[in-house]
Amino acid sequence: MTDSVLTAVDASFDPYTGAERGGVDHTSPAEVEGMLALAVRAGSVLAATSPATRESWLSAVAGALLEHQEELAVLADEETGLGLPRLRAELAGTARSTLFYASVAVEGSYLGASSDLVSESISLARWNIPVGPVTVFGASNFPFGFGVFGHDVASALSAACPVIVKAHPAHPRLSVRIAGIVRETLLSAGAPAGTYDLVVGFDAGLQLVDSPAIKTIAFTGSERGGMALRDRAAVRGVPVFAEMGTVNPAFVTAAAVADSAGTEAIAAGYVGSFTLGAGQFCTKPGLIFAPAGSGMFDAVARHVAEVPAAPLLTAGIAVRFASGTAELAAAAGDSAASAALVGEGYAAAAQVFRVAIADLIPGSRLLEECFGPVALVCEYDDGAAALDALAGLQGSLAASVFTGGSTDPETAGILARLLPKVGRVALNAWPTGVANTWSQQHGGPWPATSRPEATSVGAGALSRFVQPVALQNADPRTLPVFFAPENPWHIPRRIDGVLTLPVPSAVPLSASKDLS
Amino acid sequence: MTDSVLTAVDASFDPYTGAERGGVDHTSPAEVEGMLALAVRAGSVLAATSPATRESWLSAVAGALLEHQEELAVLADEETGLGLPRLRAELAGTARSTLFYASVAVEGSYLGASSDLVSESISLARWNIPVGPVTVFGASNFPFGFGVFGHDVASALSAACPVIVKAHPAHPRLSVRIAGIVRETLLSAGAPAGTYDLVVGFDAGLQLVDSPAIKTIAFTGSERGGMALRDRAAVRGVPVFAEMGTVNPAFVTAAAVADSAGTEAIAAGYVGSFTLGAGQFCTKPGLIFAPAGSGMFDAVARHVAEVPAAPLLTAGIAVRFASGTAELAAAAGDSAASAALVGEGYAAAAQVFRVAIADLIPGSRLLEECFGPVALVCEYDDGAAALDALAGLQGSLAASVFTGGSTDPETAGILARLLPKVGRVALNAWPTGVANTWSQQHGGPWPATSRPEATSVGAGALSRFVQPVALQNADPRTLPVFFAPENPWHIPRRIDGVLTLPVPSAVPLSASKDLS
């Protein structure tokens, strides 16, 4: 490859108006090669660092992002139209998540340290090493949380992997600005050059995917994009952790809508959840099953009529929303659907369609995600048939079940059918909003993700970026420092099959504040 | 699909003579459908069992296999030619491994139980559920260890997944006999019908791969076979854990061959290791780097000349061994290579070829596995160049490093280069022979496996057959029993981010024996 004379550009567009507002040059092949070489070198350095060292780097990045909160929120709003309050909160959440992933590394379970004296002549030690340089393809819909420094990047860095991210074309100027802050902060904090970098442009992204230097790829976006990446990377056997869009179903039991207040609260919540961020959440609930006679469709439609139009992220998403809602209307047999795009820029109007169980058959358009503020209501006569339809859906990231409370006899049966198909099930709550904790699971069976065992939010997110190795008959001095008898990193370890915990250390200052 | 009038057959051949000795009918499409339906039903039952219950089933199977040890070893020898001592030992090891996997399930870490009170309005519980029915494609070279009831099957059953195995055409009669014993024993022990079954025939195997009932596939065999399975299953997003053949390199430092006794011991060990089981081990060392002047090639060649010819497993393997060794001879520039196949049946003579570092370039035949008793010796002048060549090899299951002892200054540098490319590194030991313990890693980066994060031997083997789920805002009574406050299964759990261990239970009888 050679650099072309005319440099291609990712143009920046304002979703409120559709107007172009500058842009960012694509990264040249030579520049990408330079980044890859630096990342390989950084990989060796990072592999030898302690989690506490990386925590200090990531803490500096979290601080720097918060220092630039207002500037970044304004820039993000110019390119996404998601609104300042949401964007400020998303950035604050990203800073918290960064600290969380670093703390997960410090806790040390992710290292999987284990050693056995098998016999007089055989000893084995097993632990997880970082895979090396990682490429992250962020999403359009969370410019901070799943952008050029979001969950994937922070968890990979926590696991000691350098990261080269590809800027999403929906927010090129923001991507470049964030990357500049992150790169500079990491260097100042002592991280080696090559720990983090950014490329712009489709070809630069492909160059990363095809490079033998890149050992793992994380992606958040459409099923089409994720599957194309998976298949391209399969040629050289590189893992692709793709988190893709799904129809996240909700199920309402008879007891949950025993009175009209129940229906009203669920309808209001449903509309609030599926129009949040203009319906551009990967956990957006897209299909609700409610008992016939509950009046669910009418209640949802009333609330939908009150939702103001909101801008979609890009012109492409707006076009696909228009065609997607037309397809849904046709599949649902709704000939009177209103206009999907209204007013200036990429503004879209919320939509809802009524569907019959008989239409929810494999291959139907109704069972595919439509990105944007649209959802389906299925009122069922026969609870068993509805449950069969629910269990027959493709894998989803999340689902909701609304019950009449802890004594609702339907709950156990619904959960037994749902859990094998879904990463997370929320009871009497909506799936949008993903808490970042040790017990979070943001994943699910294909096509929710390409890796049903993985999660892209929560403590498990680090596991995507390590691989186990075993060393047989090693002199103890050859093993990583965390195997030393004094357990210098204070991590859980398995010794001869028995899980052992570190001796609790003194209460850290940051935690003791709350005790005073 | 309909049953054909003429049933196809997997014929059984005697590797010592090449003579056909009966055969086994292929499973019909209708029979496979019946098995799949039973497996789905068994999956629901198994998911609700405790690890201790499954341990009792698996313990019964281990006992039944040992009861039939002599019968099965004789039958295996008739179809594999691996010899009775090895086959008796392999079966005994399989019985031990079965108990080990069951004990790993009982220990409970594999469940990944974790719960968090995130806020006043959000609680999360996360744990691993069994994926459901699994299909296992066993290998030809370990009729017990990786056959129709080996590591993959025992670890899947321990993790509460029903298994339908495909018989390897190299040992159809043995497969059917083992399956009969296992099926009957499981039923007698109380396991539901459909917990375990066997199909025979290529088409029956494909029917399993394509069935929506099968949630995960485990395979041990050639790279070609593993990749074909991976790509076929990718259409419906099903994980394939393929463990494939690799060139497992060995590296000898200068200090390790400081005297001729060092060279002699390593040469003898190398030949013993790469001709073990007629070189039909996936961990067979296939390429050794030794310092020029050590006399390694000559010493290895002397030992090779003394190895008696031994039968390969199948006619197909014998043919590929003949063509493979001819290709290696050509690539190594050895025009005087001796005959690969000698005597009766599938008997093969051990071979060794001298190669130059300059020939070890990507794409060379020298860097691909050749199944059978053949290996390469590379004598290096320049240690740094040899290390570069070593680090440039494809991913391998295992590697060996021979050093001058714990003070050898080369050790650390070699390990740093090797570990990212290899599942297990043995120091001053050969890679053949894989202890089944908590700290084992039998896997490695592609093309060693399709899943660098996985292992098919050791405690981690269960992880291939579970997937995480999170339940948000669940009534505690809705959660699995192992979340109950009294920790009824005595498993490690993470509560609000803190790993907690079960209260130690009384010393079990089987362990207390050793104390008397």
UniProtKB/TrEMBL annotation, chains A, B:
Lineage: superkingdom: Bacteria
Entry keywords, A to Z: Oxidoreductase
Pfam family, one: Aldedh
Residue stretches making up the Aldehyde dehydrogenase domain: 12-444
Keyword Oxidoreductase: yes
GO molecular function, one term: oxidoreductase activity, acting on the aldehyde or oxo group of donors, NAD or NADP as acceptor
Coiled coil: none
Protein name per UniProt: NADP-dependent aldehyde dehydrogenase
Species this chain originates from: Salinibacterium xinjiangense
